[in-house]
Amino acid sequence: MKNAQCTRCTRRFHEKDIYTIQQLQYRKEPNYEWSKKFLETIIGEWDSLCEECVKHYSDISRKAWQKENR
Ligand SMILES: [Zn+2]
Predict the structure, then answer these.
(1) How many domains does the chain have?
(2) Which of 25, 38, 58, 68 could cysteine-pair with 32, CB 3.0–4.6 Å?
(3) Domain that holds residue 27
(4) 66 Cα–ligand 1 center, Å
(5) Spacing, Cα 12 to ligand 1 middle (Å)
């Protein structure tokens, strides 16, 4: 059963494996408010993502934050 589609890579996957950038609220730095603001021009808070793509957004937001806070 494949009934979800990733917003970024358009790959179809099981609905139970959906991630959203809400996932990022569990990391300490950068905090979620910062991450959400950084990503909001690219992706919405509730967009469906596969595991790889949520990692991608996690990485680019962390790198941008590190650049700003070096
Ligand atoms: Zn994806």
Answers:
(1) 1
(2) 25
(3) 4-68
(4) 24
(5) 8
13 in Cβ contact with 4 (< 8 Å):
yes
Residue 32, pLDDT score: 96
Looking at the whole model, is its pTM more than 0.85? yes
Distance in Å, CA 10 to ligand 1 centroid: 6
pLDDT value of residue 34: 97
Please tell me the number of Cα atoms within 13 Å of 70 on its side-chain side: 6
Distance 14 CA to ligand 1 centre (A): 12
